[in-house]
Each structure stands twice: as C-alpha cells, then as structure tokens.
Amino acid sequence: MRFSIGQKIFYGFSIIILITVSIILLSFPLLNKVDELSSQVLPLSREVSISQSYNEIVRALESKIELYLVLGSQDAKEEALLVLAQLDQFSNKLSIDKDLESLRGIRMLAEQISNAAGTLIAYINKKEAAYNMNRRLLETVDRFKNFEEAQKNFQNQKLK
Prior knowledge:
This protein is mainly α and 160 residues long. The chain has one domain (41-159): Up-down Bundle (Four Helix Bundle (Hemerythrin (Met), subunit A)). It is built from four helices and no strands. The protein has helices spanning 5-71, 74-96, 104-125, 130-159. α1 runs parallel beside α3, α1 runs antiparallel to α4 (130-159) and α2 (74-96) runs antiparallel to α3 (104-125). The longest helix has 67 residues, at 5-71.
C-alpha cells in the first residue's frame, strides 16, 4: 500500500496532534497537584522568612549591645538603640497580622528581649547600678538563648 505525500503529511500531523493531546491530558492532573502543593508552601515560606528576619534583627541587637558594653561609646549606644527600635517596629507590625499566630511565641520572646535590652541600656547609663546591670545582662542573655531555642523549635516544627 502506497501513500501519497499528502496522506503521509496528514497521518504524521494526526499522530503528532494525538501525542500532544495525550500529553496535555496526562499532565493536567499533575499540574493541579503542583498548584495545590505550592499553595500549601507559600504560607510556610512566609512564616520561615519572617522568623529569619526576627533572627537577623535579634542577632544584630545582641552584637550592638555587646559592642556598647565593651566600648561604652555614645555611637555604640545609638546603634544599639536604633536596632532596638527596628525590633520594636517589626514586632508591632507583625502583632497586627492575624495569619501569623504561629509566630506568637517568637514575637513575645522578641518583645521580652526588647524590654530587657532597653532596661540594660538604661542601667549602663547609671554607673552606681552595677548590680542591677549585671542581673539585667544575665536576664538578657537568657532571653537571647530562649529566642534561639524557640526559633529552632519553630523551624523544626514547620519543616516536619
């Protein structure tokens, strides 16, 4: 049986169309599954990103306070107060968002760190308050440790 050139082109084109339609029909359910999975990942990635932002601000605050404790300069104090204000602004902004209830514990620890660091900076200004400053310093260090543990627990919980 001999096919003409026109018939060969027609049958070849028909086979390509059938293959294309079958690929589309087979891949459509997979695309729906990918879309469903990506809608689940988006809130998680937002929470982890915010958690990382908290971590960066808290680490910056810790280093600025250490710098201020070592140097005792006005510039170091201003830098520490600037980072402290950033932490407060970040916490206040996130306290409004109801979708981030899972970060409530980390936000509360960040607020405790903010209060402890602010009090520590105030005590440093008063030379006669060395005992209170040392006590606040220990409390602030404990808050930083609690924050790091909460951060790790949150990430482990979300990544399970």
